[in-house]
Amino acid sequence: MKIAVVGAGLTGLKAARELREYARVRVFEPGELGGLAASFGDSFRIEKYYHHCFRYDEYLLREIKELGLGSKLVWKVAKTGFAVDGKIYPLNTPFEILHYPYLSFRDKVRLARFTLKSRKMNYENYDDMGVIEGIRKELGDELLEKFFMPLLRSKFGENSEKVSFAWLLGRVAIRSNRKYSGEEIGYIRHGFHQLVERMAEGIEIVPERAKIRRGAKWEVNGEEFDAVIFTAPLPELGGLGDALGIARIEYQSSVCALVASESTLTEEIYWTNIADKMSFGAVIEHTNFMPLEDYGTHLLYLASYSTPDGRLFNMTTEEISRLFLSDLSKLGMNVEDVKWIEVFKAKYSGPIYEKGYARKITPYKVADGFYIAGMTSKPNYPERSMNGSIRAGYEVANEVKKDLL
Ligand SMILES: Cc1cc2nc3c(=O)[nH]c(=O)nc-3n(C[C@H](O)[C@H](O)[C@H](O)COP(=O)(O)OP(=O)(O)OC[C@H]3O[C@@H](n4cnc5c(N)ncnc54)[C@H](O)[C@@H]3O)c2cc1C
Hints:
Layout: E1 2-6, H1 10-19, E2 24-28, E3 39-40, E4 46-47, H2 58-66, E5 73-78, E6 80-84, E7 87-90, H3 94-98, H4 105-120, H5 131-139, H6 141-156, H7 165-174, E8 178-179, E9 182-188, H8 193-200, E10 204-206, E11 212-214, E12 218-220, E13 223-225, E14 227-230, H9 239-243, E15 251-261, E16 271-274, E17 282-285, E18 298-306, H10 317-330, E19 338-351, E20 365-367, E21 370-372, H11 386-404
Parallel strand pairs: 1-2, 1-14, 2-10, 6-16, 14-21
Antiparallel strand pairs: 3-4, 5-9, 6-7, 8-9, 11-12, 12-13, 15-18, 15-19, 16-17, 17-18, 20-21
The protein binds flavin-adenine dinucleotide (FAD).
């Protein structure tokens, strides 16, 4: 039995691990192991795109433990903030929220009530309602403009208005592990690259871009397989996607800069959402979460979402660096302290959870011997994540076992 896995991100690696004792599994990957969760650096390794996990990430946490990394997991409350008019306000404790000057007391109460109510709403019923319409109806214009729009822009960039209300309700419902002082998040000390490396141990990687053909059997780069598991972004299927009747899904792109600096932007905030119109939507101060001594330099990410044909995505690295650093200085950071900046771009960094998205979720089995799993699979709705991809890899492997073994 021969199985081809297309893509060595977390989905592909998990599927390959699950199947390798039953079949010869070859994983085609032209880029780096780990896909969007790949890392960068020599003297230390750090994710190209900020990564953390949550207590409810059942499949991810199980994988971490099974691969002997459980003792390296660190859990901490990550402080968040909001940058408005060039000033950063911490927004974690009820005290900080009460003193936040840009929302009225009435709106703060409405927001708290909405959080409680949304956990009881069945988000699937709101798939066809736009997020703007839903927020306006439930919470009014003030909260939409002053609170939600900056968050939506930081998450979806120029695609914010397309997103469904179901996505927001689903997000609120799953994010319920808040402590008094903020939300607890996890990280594998010294980086998630350790997980990727352990997942890839003993897996046969073919460093080639997969070209798939349907003959008497499925062929990948001219070699026949009994089954193909495709885990790359759907546009990589080309015409085959339409031929197999797979719903088209629009993706967003990421532009993320990793900045090493001698100073920090804030003392202790991990995640700052930017309400002001800036070239990035969030600042993530990694070394306000993990110990500085692990890296020997302060590290922070500047994160922005775009589209493959968007303006930001198509700027050069130098242009993006200049723009990002200029905006960073407007937030009060001393950019003279910046030692280096690296810009990373991902063309397909996640699906846009548009209105009607739930109907487009990709099934695992799409034809005899042909399976798809990854960011557009069910476990990655309403939020794509490492957990969702590991779960999708596990579940697609089970489908293959059921059909072929
Ligand atoms: C900015 C950013 C921040 C994130 N932060 C978090 C976080 O904090 N927590 C969290 O849980 N998740 C986070 N994620 C999401 C997480 O990284 C992804 O959901 C997950 O890694 C996706 O894994 P995947 O294997 O499904 O897809 P991918 O990682 O996209 O893997 C697909 C692989 O297919 C390969 N490929 C493409 N075309 C071909 C081809 N033709 N042939 C062969 N291979 C091909 C690609 O090179 C890639 O390696 C973040 C993502 C981004 C972009």
